[in-house]
Design brief:
The complex is a heterodimer of chains A (151) and B (138). Chain A is mainly α. In chain A, 73% of the residues lie in helices and 0% in strands. In chain A, helix 5 (112-121) crosses helix 6 (125-149). In chain B, helix 5 packs antiparallel against helix 6 (114-137).
Chain lengths: 151, 138
């Protein structure tokens, strides 16, 4: 999936960013009484196009949330921060990855945020089972791709 | 009001993803690569986010209702069932290939890397077809 790029260990930046993510999850609970799971929010935002089974008030905030996510790196660049990012360049691989992530998170009712952050914060055994499962298969996948096949 | 609050929450979440390094697939893949050049940073993201949410949720739940919706709507399902585990296993495979989970994929969109532009539409298609598949499996 492209050359391996070395990254620096950044415990403080990562901890601070994590606290911001947690804060956003708390604000979503305070304002909307909902879990800040990105897949749940995304599929809620898409529901107008697919099933139309949602109320306007439960739909608009989800679309706005997604727009906020998209605006974030632009804000960071606007205040003079560099946004470092290396995205794998194998486009066929990325289409496959996107499709699998979409199907998997919709089927498993959550992703890194819904099960990871929010589910663990609720001490949900269901979310813990999901987190352990996706961490394991993600680790195995990277191991196989990098160390067995070597792509 | 809902729209402004929704946007602000998304913005804070996205800035958190960028600052933490979670929005960089190279960093995610190095976190998952325990046998290689392991970068444990993302454990700090998960730790910081979960602990903050754990404390914050408990404060928020003292209120009778959220600010701009009628009631709290928290998942009630507790079953560790086939759709959950199959879905989570699949998600991990896709995450390990691309280095993107859904939130970081959205924040990567305006930077318009070719890999992102391939990933995001495919993810949205996947989310739309994954819903009915969940119902079939359970």
């Amino acid at each position: 999936m492209g050359p391996i790029v070395e990254t620096e260990f950044t415990p403080w930046a990562s901890l601070f960013g994590g606290v911001l993510i947690g804060l956003s999850a708390v604000l979503v609970m305070l304002a909307f009484g909902r879990i800040a799971g990105i897949v749940g929010i995304t599929s809620g935002a898409l529901s107008r196009l697919t099933s139309g089974q949602t109320t306007t008030q439960d739909w608009a905030w989800r679309v706005a949330f997604v727009l906020g996510l998209i605006a974030a790196p632009l804000l960071m660049q606007g205040i003079g921060q560099t946004v470092t990012q290396t995205v794998p360049s194998n486009l066929l691989g990325m289409v496959a990855a996107g499709l699998i992530v979409g199907v998997g998170t919709a089927m498993g009712s959550g992703c890194t945020s819904g099960h990871g952050v929010c589910g663990l914060a609720r001490l949900s055994p269901r979310s813990l089972a999901a987190v352990l499962t996706f961490m394991a298969t993600a680790g195995i996948t990277v191991y196989v791709l990098r160390h067995v096949i070597g792509v | 009001m809902r729209i402004i609050l929704g946007f602000l929450c998304g913005l804070i979440f996205g800035v958190g993803l960028v600052i933490s390094g979670m929005s960089d697939p190279a960093k995610v893949l190095n976190f998952l690569d325990v046998a290689g050049n392991w970068d444990p940073s993302l454990a700090f993201v998960m730790g910081g986010a979960s602990v903050t949410a754990y404390i914050g949720y408990r404060l928020v739940w003292k209120r009778p209702a959220p600010l701009v919706m009628a009631d709290f709507d928290i998942p009630k399902s507790t079953a560790i069932d086939r759709p959950l585990l199959t879905g989570a296993a699949l998600f991990g495979i896709g995450w390990g290939i691309g280095g993107f989970c859904p939130g970081p994929a959205w924040t990567a969109l305006p930077l318009m890397a070719p890999g992102t532009l391939a990933f995001v539409p495919a993810m949205l298609v996947g989310i739309v077809i994954g819903g009915p598949l969940k119902a079939k499996l359970s």
